């Protein structure tokens, strides 16, 4: 199924629900309020079908419903009540999904259409009517914008309980109250909006328990005053909101206050002018109200226990990972100690023998070679100590024993002494490049010159160029054709792979290969900042 068609069944269900709602409301209207019989179904389609667009095109649905509200009001059709209710839903979803310009257009359209619906022909437009129309447009926009932000995030993001609460509350409210919407002095659409809001409010009760509880308290008072036929429904919704409040609010003080307020409102709703108040009846009401509190507190304790168990599991996992890391560090340290003992012993012996031979050898190339061997051995021991420290603590940033540019110059001088004809071009701008890039460039130059000596041999001309700009550091090592056939020195073959890994770790690029003149070209680019991967 194409992604364009995902959710279409739900949109069709919304459209069918909108049409059904208008047919139910029109069926409850008094005969004098109905438009001609043949217009009932077309008008139901007119005001109900836009509900199927409200998820994908909320602004279009809002403008459509605003126009339908004006049209049905001018026709004197009862469908204007349905259009008014659904228009508020469309404005709320526009505020939830669209940008502020679309929200402003939807609010203006809703305010104008509501004014047309409320003001009778020939009547003056009063300040009270204007404020009411503005409030009708602003309230759903505020709710939609509020829900758009971070609304009391739960630890679990599963919205299934919220959907079930909203669906159950809406179904119960609609089935138990829609036959009474036309019975009160207020417009039927106003009663319908409050009924729908009362049912849907349960969907956000877990995230805003206090606000939803207060909302249902107000609805009980309004129902008892203006529409006694639905006070029982309002009381049931209030009990559900109380249970969710007790589950989500851990404070016993607030729970007790909510319990007492519910007992008071239940007494107001149950006790009529001719009802005899007895201790037994009061105790029954208090026990009835206590039931959702007990259920809510029980579920809250269960959730808290489950949250504590999840926290314990996470902490146990963290400790396990920490122990594994400690074991790895211990193993690294053991390996580092073994490497140090083995390599340092042999390199140290080599340095001592070279030093002793230096004092017994005459001056000349042999003495220079022995001096170079001794200095190289000392450098190897220093690098080995740095590597050992890194193995013992991988998080430690390895320090440099010398300035990277000095390391590059020293490498060029050493390889020149070994027989290579090195032409070094070191850009002074590298002094301002990041230290990590400079250090990596120095290591690449060291390894690159060593490879030239191994594979091309003494006498080979090598041009080394290290440059820097605002983008990073560039390294280029180009050697010509070997002057003679040489016997290649032993090689592990891992030098080039190591350079590639070093450059890749910094987010740079490296290329190496023969050129058209029979030589070899190695080029690396080291960015100033590591690129995001």
Automatic annotation (TrEMBL):
Domain Signal transduction histidine kinase subgroup 3 dimerisation and phosphoacceptor span(s) in chain numbering: 331-394
The protein's Enzyme Commission number: 2.7.13.3
UniProt keywords, alphabetically: ATP-binding, Kinase, Membrane, Nucleotide-binding, Phosphoprotein, Transferase, Transmembrane, Transmembrane helix, Two-component regulatory system
Domain of life according to the entry: Bacteria
Positions of transmembrane segments: 12-29, 35-54, 61-80, 100-119, 131-151, 188-206, 226-245, 252-272, 278-300
InterPro entries membership: HATPase_C_sf, HATPase_dom, Sensor_HK_TwoCompSys, Sig_transdc_His_kin_sub3_dim/P
A Pfam family this chain is assigned to: HisKA_3
Residues in Histidine kinase/HSP90-like ATPase domain copies: 441-527
GO MF terms, alphabetically ordered: kinase activity
Catalytic reaction list: ATP + protein L-histidine = ADP + protein N-phospho-L-histidine
Main enzyme class: transferase
Name of this protein: histidine kinase
Organism field: Nonomuraea ferruginea
């Amino acid at each position: 199924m194409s992604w364009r068609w995902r959710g279409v069944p739900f949109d069709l269900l919304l459209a069918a629900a909108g049409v059904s709602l208008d047919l139910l409301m029109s069926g409850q209207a008094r005969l004098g309020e109905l438009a001609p019989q043949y217009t009932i179904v077309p008008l139901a389609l007119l005001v109900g079908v836009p509900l199927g667009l409200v998820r994908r095109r909320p602004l279009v649905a809002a403008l459509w419903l605003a126009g339908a509200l004006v049209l049905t009001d001018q026709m004197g059709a009862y469908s204007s009540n349905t259009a008014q209710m659904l228009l508020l839903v469309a404005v709320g979803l526009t505020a939830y999904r669209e940008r502020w310009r679309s929200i402003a257009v939807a609010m203006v359209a809703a305010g104008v259409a509501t004014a047309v619906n409320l003001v009778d022909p020939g009547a003056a437009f009063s300040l009270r009517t204007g404020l009411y129309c503005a409030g009708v447009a602003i309230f759903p926009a505020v709710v939609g914008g509020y829900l758009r932000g971070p609304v009391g995030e739960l630890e679990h993001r599963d919205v299934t309980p919220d959907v079930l609460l909203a669906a159950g509350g809406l179904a119960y409210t609609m089935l138990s109250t829609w036959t009474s919407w036309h019975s009160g002095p207020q417009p039927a659409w106003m009663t319908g909006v409050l009924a729908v809001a009362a049912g849907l409010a349960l969907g956000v009760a877990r995230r805003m328990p206090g606000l939803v509880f207060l909302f249902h308290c107000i609805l009980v008072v309004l129902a008892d005053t203006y529409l006694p036929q639905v006070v029982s429904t309002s009381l049931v919704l209030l009990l559900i909101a109380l249970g969710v409040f007790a589950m989500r609010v851990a404070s016993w003080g607030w729970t007790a206050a909510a319990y007492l307020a519910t007992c008071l409102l239940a007494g107001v709703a149950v006790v009529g002018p001719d009802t005899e108040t007895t201790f037994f009846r009061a105790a029954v009401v208090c026990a009835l109200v206590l039931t959702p509190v007990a259920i809510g507190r029980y579920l809250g304790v269960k959730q808290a226990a489950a949250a504590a168990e999840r926290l314990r599991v996470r902490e146990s996992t963290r400790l396990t990972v920490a122990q594994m890391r400690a074991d790895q560090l211990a193993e690294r340290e053991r390996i580092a100690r073994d490497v140090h003992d083995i390599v340092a012993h042999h390199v140290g012996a080599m340095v001592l023998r070279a030093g002793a031979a230096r004092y017994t050898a005459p001056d000349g190339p042999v003495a220079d070679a022995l001096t170079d061997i001794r200095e190289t051995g000392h450098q190897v021991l220093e690098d080995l100590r740095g590597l050992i420290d890194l193995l013992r603590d991988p998080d430690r940033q390895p320090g440099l024993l010398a300035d990277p540019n000095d390391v590059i110059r020293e490498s060029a001088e050493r390889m020149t002494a070994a027989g290579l004809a090195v032409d070094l071009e070191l850009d002074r701008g590298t002094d301002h490049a990041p230290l990590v890039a400079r250090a990596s460039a120095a290591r690449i130059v060291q390894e690159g010159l060593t490879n030239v000596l191994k594979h091309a041999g003494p006498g080979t001309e090598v041009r080394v160029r290290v440059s820097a700009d605002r983008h990073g550091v560039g390294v280029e090592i180009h050697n010509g054709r070997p002057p003679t056939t040489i016997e290649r020195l032993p090689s592990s073959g891992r030098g080039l792979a190591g350079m590639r890994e070093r450059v890749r770790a910094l987010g740079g690029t490296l290329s190496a290969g023969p050129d058209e003149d029979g030589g070899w070209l190695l080029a690396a680019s080291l960015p100033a900042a590591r690129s995001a991967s």
